[in-house]
Amino acid sequence: MQEAATVTMNGPVALWAFVGYLAVMIVIGLLTSRFSSQGVGEFFVGGRKVNRFVVALSAVVSGRSAWLLLGVTGMAWSQGASALWAVVGYTVVELVLFLTLAPRLRGFAETHDCVTLPDVFAARFGDEDGRLRVVISGAILLFMVGYVAAQFTAGGKAMEASFGLDAQMGVLLTAAIVLGYTALGGFLAVSLTDSIQAVFMIFGLVAVPLAAATAVGGWGQVMTELGAIDPTLVDPGALTFGAFLGLVGIGLGSPGNPHIIVRYMSIEDAKSLPFAGAVATFWNVVMGAGAVAIGLVGRVLVPDVSGLPAADTESLYPFLAQQYLPPVLFGIVVASIFAAIMSTADSQLLVGASAIVRDIYQQVLKKGEEVSPARLVALSRWSVAGLVVAALAMGWVAQDVVFWLVLFAWAGLGAALGPVTLLSMYWKGMTRGGVFAGVFTGALVTVVWYFTPALKSRLYELIPAFTLSLLAAIVVSMLERRRLVGE
After folding, report:
1. What is the pLDDT tens value at each position of the chain, 487 positions in all?
2. Residue 6, by phi and psi: left (phi above 0), alpha (psi -120 to 50) or beta?
């Protein structure tokens, strides 16, 4: 039997490179804490003063998480060049959003002083009883806590694999670091750290495939050997129509994930959004192509999955980095994995805290009352801490549920909030009842489709859930408007 491969941090140079990265994250939190303490607008959307480059990079990395570095690389190892369609799906959709939805949403948010996505719906449709805010905030919290829990768990496993640290201790350390800079610096700290984390991710996704391909003899040789292993590995069209639709359809999740949408609301100048979209698209292409390239060259270097740590294709990226990069660069690659994890977890924590403090506490429980900015910021920081504790608890007692929610959260949020967000900004006929119908339909269909094997095996649940949510919102809005006209 072949001895199992492992990934370990080989030497103090790599370790100190990683520690230096973590120290920078905490310093940014400390430096931005005074600005973020001025009020909820500063804490949750950076006072709508965030630089266009920061918006572009933070939008890219907050939406990718470790799924890109570990999941897409593993997917490309298994199915070859057809994994590119997943990259095409979210890249095209997010460019379209930057050019269309983002300017409209940014203008609406400034006009109506909206800090959160539920703020936008309340301003658009009115919400005297607070039910609209509660339903949307509840959906956000349900999915976000599970997603954050999974990020912490992934961080713990990465620390165990890289440093030999106990996995549970790694989970706590990951959570503590994210809590530190997120609670201190709020949205500005999260956006700045995300931008730095983007640099680490970009470096790793470019350096690893180049170094590994050089070891093979160049990309021409990589493609030749791939074709010899299996000709379908070099054919982007070697997949069924259902699989193709599922991969491209991943992009439908983008307009419904608040941690991406809030970036559009935070930019300093709405006129800079097309430029930010171009920057984001360029790096989406570079990072996505790098992830697929790692999978392809990895299949040549490690043709049998038993040659990977734990026989897991998602360990390919750090495994190749350890094999083909010097220690200090390997340390940076390990940092890039944590960058992917933390750039998603911090953004989700902030969205969850905004739902608690801004939407439920300030706008529902304390509606009509004066609450000081200092108290709101303090509650926001405590909310971040509370969500970290909730995520840790979920990861501790229900790991299976956590990992299910990772797969489910993108589709669930995309289907529940994406269609109603688009309709609210572009269709004058949209009604409050239509929002409720869209949110409930999107969430319900996602769950039902996921748990029905005969359906799930045919098509990614996001596509039917998004479609039916869109139809439900339109039909209910039309019926509600007809009823109002009849009265």
Report:
1. 344 455 555 557 667 777 787 788 778 777 777 777 776 667 777 767 888 888 888 888 887 777 788 888 988 999 999 999 989 999 999 999 999 999 999 999 989 988 889 999 999 998 888 899 999 998 888 888 877 887 887 777 777 766 667 778 878 888 888 888 777 777 777 778 778 888 888 999 999 999 999 999 999 999 999 999 999 999 888 787 777 887 888 889 999 988 888 889 888 888 999 999 999 999 999 999 999 999 999 999 999 988 887 787 878 888 898 889 888 888 888 888 887 787 788 788 888 888 898 889 988 888 888 888 888 888 888 998 999 999 888 877 655 555 456 667 888 899 999 999 999 999 999 999 999 999 999 999 998 998 898 998 888 899 999 999 999 999 999 999 888 776 5
2. beta
Q: Which of 112, 430, 128 is nearest to 120 (CA)?
A: 112
Alpha helices, DSSP H only, in 267-398?
273-301, 316-324, 327-354, 373-397
Give Cβ neighbours of residue 187 (< 8 Å, ≥ 6 apart): 36, 42, 43, 44, 45, 46, 50, 262, 266, 350
- Tokens coding 332: 């940076």
Here the tokens at position 157 are 């496993």
CA angle 349, 52, 345 (to 5 degrees): 15
What gap in Å lies between CA 139 and CA 124, rounded to an integer?
A: 19
DSSP 50: B
Q: Is the pTM of this model over 0.70?
A: yes
Look-up of token digits 């800090």: 115
How many beta carbons lie within 10 A of that of residue 123, not counting itself? 16
- Asked whether 117 and 359 are in contact (CB, 8 A), the reply is no
Task: Provide the 3-class DSSP secondary structure of residue 133.
Answer: helix
**Could you tell me which of 92, 116, 55, 429 has the C-alpha nearest to residue 281?**
92
CA dist 247 to 74, 88, 242, 283, Å? 14, 9, 9, 19
